[in-house]
Write a structure and sequence with these properties.
Number of helices: 3
Distance between the termini: 39 Å
Radius of gyration: 47 Å
Shape: rod-shaped
Number of strands: 0
Helix content: over 70%
Largest sheet: none
Number of domains: 1
């Protein structure tokens, strides 16, 4: 019975060792996967930095175009006003009646033409591209949130496996104690058995002498 108990305990101890080895492997796999996700997260952060820098450049370009358009607008308006003054003087000199309303209409037409300046197409394109960059940045932020959540889930799972490993180690230590106690008990029984055999042999010798 004792031998069967010891064998059973040894089998259970071996099974626990296999289970612990499997848990160690699972822990290593999870840590490897966690490292990969951390690398993905770093790459995503670097990409976001690049996108933000690109956005800053585009915003600066848009601002520069705005300034250039404002500058051109002022120059055209100034030129038109100068031309208007020249026309007025010429009309006075030649005693030609010039319709101020007509000149104002021409000025408004010129301002509308300026509003349709070809560079406005570039401005619209840059605005659209800026919006696209913002959408891409939002997508990347969502991707990062997802990666962070996955990372948290894996860290939680890794904590569970570590707790299981500690429990298994405690269980293995407990089994070691039981096996040691049983071995000591077996040694004591063997000593007792040997002592009884010696006593029995002495009794047999005494009977033979009689």
């Amino acid at each position: 019975n004792y031998l069967a108990t010891i064998n059973g305990l040894n089998d259970e101890f071996c099974a626990k060792n296999v289970y612990i080895a499997n848990l160690e492997k699972a822990k290593n796999d999870i840590e490897l996967s966690l490292g990969e996700h951390q690398q993905w997260l770093q790459n995503a952060n670097e990409r976001i930095v690049q996108l933000e820098e690109c956005k800053i450049e585009k915003d600066a370009m848009i601002k520069e175009l705005h300034n250039e358009i404002d500058k051109l607008s002022k120059m055209v308006v100034l030129d038109l006003k100068t031309a208007l003054e020249a026309v007025k003087k010429e009309a006075q000199q030649e005693k030609i009646e010039v319709s101020i309303d007509e000149l104002m209409v021409k000025l408004q037409d010129a301002e509308r033409a300026l509003a349709e300046h070809p560079k406005l197409d570039d401005l619209i394109y840059l605005k659209n591209e800026n919006e696209n960059l913002r959408e891409l940045l939002n997508d990347k932020n969502a991707c990062i949130d997802n990666l962070v959540q996955q990372n948290n889930d894996r860290e939680w799972s890794l904590g569970e496996h570590r707790q299981w490993l500690r429990d298994c180690n405690d269980r293995a230590n407990w089994l070691d104690g039981i096996v040691l106690a049983k071995n000591e008990e077996i040694d004591e029984l063997r000593c007792e058995n040997n002592r009884l055999k010696i006593d029995l042999a002495k009794i047999s010798q005494n009977d033979d002498i009689k």
